[in-house]
Each structure stands twice: as structure tokens, then as C-alpha cells.
Amino acid sequence: MVTIEDLSVNFGSTEAVRHVNLEIQGGEILGVVGESGSGKSVTALTLMGLVSEEATVTSGRILFDDAVLQEAGKPRDKALYRRYQGERMSMVFQEPMTSLNPTQRVGRQVEEMLRLHSMPAYSEEGAPGRGTAAEPSSPAEPKGRAAGGRQQRQAMKQLVLETFAAVGLREPERVYGCYPHQLSGGMRQRVMIAMAIILHPRLIVADEPTTALDVTVQNQIMDLLREINEKRHNAILFITHDLNLARRICHRIAVMKDGRVVETGTPEEIFEHPREEYTRNLIEAVPSRMKRRTKRGGGGQICPEPVVTVRDLQVYYREGGNSLFSRGKKNHVVRDAGFEIRKGEILGLVGESGCGKTSLSKAILGMNRDITGEIRHYSTRPQMIFQDPYSSLNPSKTVGWLLEEPLRARGKLEPERAMSAADMRCAAMEMLGTVGLSEAYYDRRPSQLSGGQRQRISIGQALITRPGLVIADEPVSALDVTIQAQIMELMRRLQEEMGLAYLFISHDINVIYQMSDRIMVMKEGKILEIGETEEVFAHPREEYTRQLLRES
Fold it and tell me: How much is the pLDDT for 385?
């Protein structure tokens, strides 16, 4: 159905894709795996006609059936692509917050697919037929036509609600009326998937579609994509850094490195008999419960005294904002939480999207004060490493300025600890070395860094004031497996060297297993169980924990 022949794509003097050859058969799920910067997304965006104007196709061509969509030496035919995009081929993007319009309710955004393309329309007898989405009726229209327009709009809304339910969105009517910022990351990704599948296109390009999702919802989405593939015979180009997912869902897998396809085969061939050393390294880097846990070094001992204690904590979230003065509906998102984190300990926190993990962490940091109960700190200024460093780092500032900002803030709050500009620069340079980057990065901006490099800067920001407690909220979920392994190793090393305590939040139970000394499991705002890592994995007390372990 899709043929990519000898495709090369350049951005100026940088060759991002080099002589790539791929075929996607009708009804096939083709996985593309590889590290960040390997050319996976550029290949997909070029196929979809969405690659930026700076990109140049320097060799090869792309065919959909027998139609040539792209060819070297010829400008992109935007009119041709408009006939294909949405109805015959659609895309699920990696970061839904930057893909969804923040000023429109998500229901209307998904409806746009139906308004721009065709949808089941109601005939005069009321039977569904195939037609174009009706424009809103004007006051001058005959009553019968106006009624037909209302029926059409109601039919569109009903189809959106059904699609929301199909992708695992609870309360689809409520979600329909929400803005993107009112939904969790996992819910926003499900909205994007609903938008991509609502017209049942023949090709779905899924670019890291489950990065932000917990393991339970991830499995639901995988089952949904597999069901769509089997029932509708859609082809899926599935781009992921999660090799376990690719192994579970794909019929064939292509491995990319430095813009080239280095190996292609069935999941069994790739995982059981990889031909390339690079493929073997990728497989080895995947976190797994089947691997022996990394033991902490001699300098990383856990002390009995706590860095924070939480007692009978209730956390509330108000729709429209977390301010105590907000008039929005008050939701009870964390209930009766009680635990402690000890000095030098990594406490893992795992649970589904929306279970209260991030709300709990914000309450501990004082970012949400709409709480009751007790949070008592025994260390100086806890810090946070956020899930998406590209969103949390100011894009207009240099790396040096970003690393120095916590020092400037501390100096204003504690004048006796204020530092000179020269001392702050020295501290920032030292932190660059600590997180494994050279001093050359000091004058760069976040847009000039890879995802793994940006996350290293986020870690440096959190550690530069030498806090006793660091809350790491999904710090490796958006990274490919090799970079993920490097960041996990970096965080373990720094934790032991500095005697830090981590609250390590993740939806990936295998990452939690490799990182944590103890594990805390949350569901629907309540902490179900806490225990030593080996004990929880070997003898989980709660059925929900057993379900998480089965589905991972």
C-alpha cells in the first residue's frame, strides 16, 4: 500500500534520513524503532507531508497505492496531500499538548475531522448514508434543511462521543466539553488517537502514541489499535522507543540508526536473532524485571531518619485552577495519604494516569496548597524534575542562565547564601560536568539540545542547590531506551554521591523495579500498598498491584 523508495531528507547540510527503503502492506503493523535522532519521526512526517519547509527530499520517492506523494526534485503537492490527509492517512503525534488547540474544546477539535471530510449523514428516511458534513444552517434556510443540519451536528457529536468511549475515555460527554489543559496527559493522548481513527483511514501513523500513558491504559490503546487493524484492515506505521511494545503489536520491525534502516524483520527475528550490534545494544538497554536489579554502591546507604513525612493528607483540585480563591468545582484527588521518605532512599510511586501521583507530588512541594493533613519536611527546599523538559525549560534562555536561576532564586529568599555572578557561573559549569555535558553547552538554548540532553539540564537544575529531596515526575518516559538507561544510571549515581532521597514517579513498572528501594502503589487517589521492591514484586498484597504486574 505504501512504498518508500531510497528516501533521503536534508535539513540544510544535515542529512536526517539516508536512503531509506520501507514497504507497508495493507493490514500490516510496521514498527520503526531506534534512538532519538535516528530519523524515525522525519521519515513519518515526510510520508504524511508534514515535514517542515526547511526539509528537502534529495533522493527517492513515496507512493501511496500507485500515487506518487513525494519525489526528489519536485515541490510537495499540497493539494494532493489534502485529499489524503485525515481521510486516507492520519497521524497520532507524540506530544498532544502541543498538537491540540488550547483555545478550543476537544470535542469540537475532533469534530473538525468530520466537518472537513465526509461522515455518515442522515438521509430523509433517517438511515445513515455517506455524505459530506453539513455547514451550519442560516436563518434563511427552510425548516426542513435546518432540521437536517441539527441532525447532522447531533450525529457528528454522537460519533465523537462513541469514539471517545472506544479509546477508553471515561465520561465522554464531560471530556467533549473540556479544554486540553483540563485533561491529564494520558487523556489528551487518547483524544489525539480518537481524532486519528474517527474516519477509519487506511493508514495510521502513530508516533510514540503511548509515551504519556500508564501501563493499563497503554494496553487498552494497544488492544484498540490491534482491534482497528484486524477489523478495518488498516495499516499502521508504529514509531516507538519502547521495544517491548513493538514486539507485542507489530508484524514487522525496522531498526533505524543515524538516518538509515539497519535491520528489518519479524519480531522473532529482531529479538531472538538480531544481526546488528546496534540492535543487540537496544534490546539490552530495555528495563526489565527479568534483569537483576542494580545494587546501590557503598556510599548510598539509607538512613532511618526521614526527609519528609506525610500524615492523613487530603489533596483537592479545583476545575479552573488550583487557587484557593477559584470558584471551580472542588475535586478530592488524593485521600488519606500517609508515608515517609527516608534520607538516601528512592521511593517509587506507580499508578494509572489520573490516580493522583502528580497531585500528590505538587502538594509535597507546596505547589498546591488546597490540602488538609500534615506534610513535614526535614530538608532544605525540595526540587522537582518534570516529565517534559522541553515544556519546563524556558526556550528563550541559555543553558547557563537556566542552571543559575535556582541559585538566583535562593539568593533572594536567603540573602546570606547569595552568590556572585562569577560563582554562579562556576557552579553551573561544574553541574554541566556532573550531569555528563561539556562546558560548550553553557551558551546553547533548549532547542539546540536532544531530548536526553534537555533532561540532563532539568536534573542539573534540580540538584544545583543541593536539596535533600527530589521529586522525579516521569523523568524518563519520553526518552528512547538507550538514553533512558543513561539517565537512570546518572540519577542513581548522583543520588548516591549526594545522599539524595527521590520520590520517583513512573507508569512503567519495569523502570520502577530497576530504580526503587521501596514501592508505593496508588489507585483513584488512595495509596493501596507500600513495601520493599522485591517483596511487592514477589508477593503483592492487592489485586490491583497484581494486575499492574501482569500487564507490564
Answer: 92
Which residues have a Cβ under 8 Å from the Cβ of 77 and sit 6 or more positions away?
69
21: pLDDT strictly greater than 80: yes
Amino acid at 95: E
Sign of CA dihedral 239, 244, 248, 254: positive
Average pLDDT of the residues in 61-78? 92
CB atoms within 10 A of CB 171: 10
**Cβ distance 519 to 348 under 8 Å?**
yes
Mean pLDDT of 4-17: 92
With beta carbons less than 8 A apart as the criterion, state whether 434 and 495 touch.
Answer: no
List alpha helices for 414-508, DSSP H: 421-434, 451-463, 481-498
CA angle 235, 238, 240 (to 5 degrees): 175
Check the CA dihedral 279-283-285-291 and report its sign: negative
Check the CA dihedral 121-124-129-131 and report its sign.
Answer: negative
Residue type for position 53: E
pLDDT digits (tens, 9 = 90+) for 273-330: 999 999 998 888 877 665 555 555 444 567 889 999 999 999 998 765 555 555 567 8
* Torsion sign across C-alpha atoms 287, 291, 293, 294: negative
Residue 518's pLDDT is: 95
Asked whether the beta carbons of 533 and 350 are under 8 A apart, the reply is: no
pLDDT tens track for 381-415: 899 998 777 788 999 999 999 999 999 999 998 99
Task: Give the residue from 73, 67, 24, 14 showing the smallest Cα distance to 44.
Answer: 24
| Residue with cell string 437536517 | 148
Q: In this structure, is the dihedral angle defined by the CA atoms of residues 110, 113, 115 and 116, taken in order, positive or negative?
A: positive
Rounded to whole angstroms, how far apart are CA atoms 138 and 126? 22
Q: What is the pLDDT of residue 328?
A: 64
Count of other CB atoms within 10 angstroms of residue 73: 9
Q: Which three cell numbers stand for residue 170?
A: 471515561
Q: Which residues pair with 532 in a beta bridge?
A: 518
CA distance linking residue 300 with residue 344, whole number of Å: 6
Distance set, CA 445 to CA 80, 233, 269, 293, 392 (Å)? 37, 44, 41, 36, 13
* C-alpha to C-alpha distance for 247 and 250, rounded to whole angstroms: 6
Instruction: Specify the DSSP class assigned to residue 26.
Output: T
Per-residue model confidence as pLDDT tens digits over 198-218: 998 999 999 888 776 777 777
